[in-house]
Amino acid sequence: MRGCDDAGMRELNQLIDVEEPAWPELRETLGGGSVPVEVLPADTDVARTSLLQLQVTARSYLGAVVLHCGGLVVDNGWVRVFGSPLEGAVPSLAQVNQFPGAFDSAWQPDAGLVVAHDVLGGVFALNGGAPARAGRPGAPGEIVYFAPDSLRWEALGAGHSAWLAWLVSGALAELYTDLRWTGWQDEVRALNSDQGLSLFPPLWSAEARQDISATSRRAVPMAELLGVARDSCREFDGADPGLLGAV
Question: What CA–CA distance (Å, rounded) separates 221 from 225?
Answer without folding.
Answer: 7
